Amino acid sequence: MAGITSAGVGSGLDLEAIISALVKAENAPKQAQFTKRSSTLNITLSGVGKVKSAMDAVNSAIKTLDSSTKFDLVSAKVKAAGSEAAISVSTTSSATAGAFNIEVTQLSSGSRAQSAQNAFTSTAQEVTASGGNLTLTAGAKSFSVNLGANATLADIRDAINTSSDNFGVSANIINTGSGATLVYTSNVTGAGNDLVVSNDTAELDSVSTQANGGGAGGISIAVADQAKDAQMLIDGILVSSSTDVFVDAVQDTTITAKAVSTAGQTDKLTIAADKDAVKANIENFVTKFNEMVDVLNTAYGAGGSLAYDSATRLMREQVTAGISRQITGAGPFTSLFDLGISLSKEGKLEYSSTYGSLDDALNEDFANVGNVFAGADGLATSLGSLFDTYLQTDGVLKGRETALREDLSKLEDDKSSHAYRMEQLEKRLREQYSALDVLVAQFRSTGNYLAQQLASLPGFTTNKS
Prior knowledge:
Elements: H1 15-63, E1 74-79, E2 87-91, E3 98-106, E4 112-115, E5 126-128, E6 132-138, E7 141-147, E8 151-152, H2 153-161, E9 169-175, E10 180-186, E11 196-199, E12 219-220, E13 230-234, E14 237-241, E15 245-247, E16 253-257, E17 267-273, H3 275-300, H4 310-324, E18 341-343, E19 349-351, H5 358-364, H6 366-374, H7 379-391, H8 396-455
Antiparallel strand pairs: 1-17, 2-16, 3-13, 3-17, 4-10, 4-12, 5-8, 6-7, 6-11, 9-10, 13-14, 15-16, 18-19
Helix pairs in contact: 1-3, 1-7, 1-8, 4-7
């Protein structure tokens, strides 16, 4: 019977079903425990992760209110005299509040230089037989081009326009029908930054503003085409800039001239505390706080991922106490309630409809609204410290996440160990029932042999009744 590969083959008994039932009876309860434990750990881990994420969002929101500099924000607003403002303005937090009337009287411009009309016969006219160098300079910027022998007017134009060192000069040729005029345009603005074109050979005097031997070349700049400053009147005071950007004309602001104002019309620039930005930061904090409370309430409630969890209950109590506590050093404000923000029975923040408003507080005492959050005894400090105990690397929530992941890892090890034990159990059962199978098969074979021998005896009959 050594060739038996499946239990019951030799005996005819359904030993496979018996082995399967015995293994299943031993395995099923443990697998149920594993499934339940895995589900509980993963649900708890998910709940802790959601709470941690929601609290982190609140912490980020409160950090935008954790410094007095956050309440030093200022905004610059421009009221246009016409349909569109002639200026745009940006400012820093150190800008001083004030109001200014601004009129743009002149935009900056670069210079324009040209030859006499029809100074050249055509674009193909040869300018230099031997070649040479042209140097173009405007303000502090400069570049040179090298011209080969027999260079034409068109060659000079192309050499300038394609130079990799070109800082902003364009060369053009105007064909009048009876001749050609060479025009240079520089984008370097500001009075005194006119384009200067010099050369190293007299052959190029006709395309230069300065002759090689001294004196004027064949290119000149009309007074109207000279480089100019931008100019504006700020409360009637004339200010100039070499570009259209005026830095610190009004201290700690940058004013950009976009167009010349209509004569006599002024745009109104107002610099003031940026209450809208601060209000938006406070409202964002309220929103994130309420989202965190929703997560905590859902997790802690019946059927929640952290249902009736003592640590979660303590967290809710601490958050509620932290947000509703009394504050000192904020003038007339002693709590969020004084800013028109109250606490609902669900533990969420809501805007009061009967006792003042956030807008009223910001308008009446902007500095002390800042102290409610960013003062030495402000909410940003106290809540930030509370959140840190939960969110930092060694914090409560981080520690709990780590412990849950370790439990899940150990559970996987337990599953592997159990699977091995079930393999060994099945192996033992097969060995035991294989021996039984062989024994029964032997008994059956012996019985059949005896029956055959008895049947061969004289007078032996089989009782078929």
